[in-house]
Amino acid sequence: MKFLTKINRNYLILYFLILAGVTIVGYYILQAIILRGTKENLLSKEYLIRKQIIATGEIPNLYPIIEGQKTNDSSIIDPLFKEIEIWNELEKENEVFLEYSNEIKINDSYYLIKLRQSAFENEDLVIVLAFTLFILLLSAFLISFLVTKRMNKTVWADFEYNLQAIETFNLSENKNITLLNSNTEEFERLNRVVTNLTEKLKTDYLSLKQFTENASHEIQTPLTIALINLEEFLQLDLAPDTLKKIVISINAIKRLSTLNQSLTLLTKIENKQFISIKTLNINDIINYYIQEFAPLFETKKLKIDLIIEHDFTIKINKQLAELLITNLLSNAVNHNIPNGFIQILVKKNELKICNTGEVNSFTEENIFNRFVKGQSKSFGLGLAIVKKICETYDLEIHYFKNKLHCFTINSKS
Amino acid sequence: MKILIIEDEFDLLIAINNFLVKENFICELAENFRKADEKLSINEYDIILLDINLPDGNGLALLNTIKKRQKKAGVIIVSAKNSLDDKIRGLDLGADDYMTKPFQLSELNSRIKAVLRRKQFDGTNILTFNEISINTDSKSVTIQGKEITLTRKEYDLLLFFLINKNRVLTKEAISEHLWDDNIDLSDNFDFIYTHLNNIRRKIKLAGGTDYIKTLYGMGYKFTQR
C-alpha cells in the first residue's frame, strides 16, 4: 500500500471513529439536557396550577397534558417522574409522554396533579440536533482531510520523483543519478545517502568492469603468442608423435581461451553490460540457426522437427538472443544420439526444445550450474550462460525429461 | 604487398612478422601508438594490422590518420576484447575486419587475403592451384574449366585450404574459420570430415586430384602430393 494511501486510510478510520463517538455522546448529552428542561417546565406548571387552585379553587383539566382531581386520601405520595404511553386518538397510535405526578395539599384539601409533556417531540429535537452536529463535524473533517491530502501530495512529490529516479537508475548506463533537492530535512538526508551509495556502487562497478576486461586482455595476448608459435612448430618436419603433442597443446590453449571468454561473458551478462535491447522475434533467430546447424544435424543424422505456432517476441540484446539459441541448439546436438531427433516448438511466449539423448542424472536444480557437464568435452558453461541470459531478461527456463530431454523458455509477461 | 603491424606485445609482433615474411609480404613494425602514427604519415601500406589496445593511446584513434593518409589500405583490427561495441565502432571508423585474440596464423592469413581481394590489390579475383580455380567474385569453383557446385560451407572450406596451402590445419582451426564463435562444437568435429568427403568426391568426379591430405591426430594439409 502506498504511504499516502495508508496515511489517508488511517486518517479516515480515525475521523470516522471520532465522528461516531462525538455524535453518540452528543446525542445522550442533548437528551439529558432536554429531559432536564422538560422536568423544570413541568415543575413550573405545577407551581402555576397550585396558584390557580389557591386563587379560584378550580382544578384545571386538559387531558392528556393536565389532569387534576381532589382526593381524600391523605397518604401523601412523593412527586414522581415517569414515562407512560397514552393512546392518541388523532394519530391512532400510542404516544410516549413524560408524566409528573404529585399530591399537593392546599387549605387542608389534597389534590392529585398529573402533568404530562410529549416525549416524542423531545426525541425529535434531540435527533435533529445530533444530526446537525454530525453534519457539521463531517464537513469539518472532510475539509481537513482534503486539505491534508493535497498538502501531503505536494510535500511528497519530490520524494516520489526521486524514488522514480532511483528505480530507473542503471549502473551500466554510466549516468549519474539526479535527485531533486527537498526542503524537508529527512528527505534531504535520504537523498544524500542514496547519492553517496550510488557513487560508491558506480566506482565499484567500473573497477570490476575494468578488471574483467583487463583480465581478459592480459590473458588472451600471451595465449595468442603461445598459440602462434606452436602453430609454426606444427609446420615443421617433426616426428608424428611430437606433432601430435603440439596439436594437443594448441587445443589446450584454445580451450583455456574459450573458458576465459565464457567466464568473462558470464560476468558481463551478470553486470548487465549488454545494454542495447530490441524487440526480437525468436523465430527468425531459430530459422537462421537451423540453417547454420544443418551440416551438424546431417553429420549426426538428426531429424529436426520444427513447429512454429506463433511468433515469440522478446525484448532482448540481439547478441545474447543468438547466444541463447545457439547454446540450446549446440546442447541439443552435442548430447544427442546418432539418428536421434530434435523437436522445436514455438508458441506465443514459449519456446520448447526437446532432444533424444542418453540417460543422465541431471535435474533442473543442477543442470544449469557452472562446470556441470555430462559426457561432453565442453566446459559445462553453455547452459549456465543460457540460464544467466534468461534471468537477465525475465524469462523462465525449465528442464525436464520424460523420454526426451526438454528445455522450455517462457516469457513472464 | 606492404603490411604495417601495430602491436605492443613484442613476441607477438615478431611471430606475426615472421609468418607474413614467409608469405612474401613486406612488413614494417610499430610497437606503440607514437611509432605507428609516425609510420602512417610517411609510408603507404596495403594492409594495416592494428592492435587497438596500445600502451600510449587507443588504436581506434589511429583510424582517423589512416583514413586521411592511407586511403588505399585495408585495415584489420586485432583486439583482445571480444566486444561487439568495439567491433561496430571499429568497422564504422573504416576498418575492414575485426579479429579477436587469440587467433591462429592460418586465420590471419585468410583474413588478410580476403581484404586484399576485396580491395582488388591483387588485380585478380581468381585463385588457382593446378587444375582447381576459385573465382572469389562469383564464388564459383572450376576443375579444368568445368564448374562444380559446392555448398557455402564447402566453398569456404576449399578457399581456406587454398589460401593456407602447404600448412597443417587443425580441425579446431578449420571449425573456427567456418563457424560462428557462438556455436559450441567441442564434440562435433565429424562434420568437417563430412564436408571434406563431399569436396573430395565432387573434385574427383570432375576429374581433379584430391590434394587434401589427412594427418591422423593432427588435422589436414592441402598440398601437392
Can you characterise this structure?
The complex is a heterodimer of chains A (413) and B (225). With 413 residues, chain A is an alpha+beta fold. Chain A has helices at residues 3-56, 119-168, 185-234, 240-270, 282-300, 318-334, 382-392, and strands spanning 66-71, 80-88, 93-106, 109-118, 278-281, 303-308, 313-316, 341-347, 350-355, 395-401, 405-411. Chain A contains seven helices and eleven strands. In chain A, 21% of the residues are buried. Chain B folds into two domains: 2-119, Response regulator (Rossmann fold), CATH 3.40.50.2300; 126-222, Winged helix-like DNA-binding domain superfamily/Winged helix DNA-binding domain (Arc Repressor Mutant, subunit A, Orthogonal Bundle). In chain B, 42% of the residues lie in helices and 24% in strands. Chain B has a five-stranded parallel β-sheet with strand order 2-1-3-6-7, with helices on both faces. In chain B, strands 8-9-10-11 form a four-stranded antiparallel β-sheet, with helices on one face. In chain B, strand 8 (126-129) and strand 9 form a beta hairpin. The longest helix of chain B is centred in the last third of the chain and has 16 residues, at 190-205. Chain B is globular, with a radius of gyration of 19 Å. The two termini of chain B are 29 Å apart. The model of chain B has no long low-confidence stretch (mean pLDDT 89).
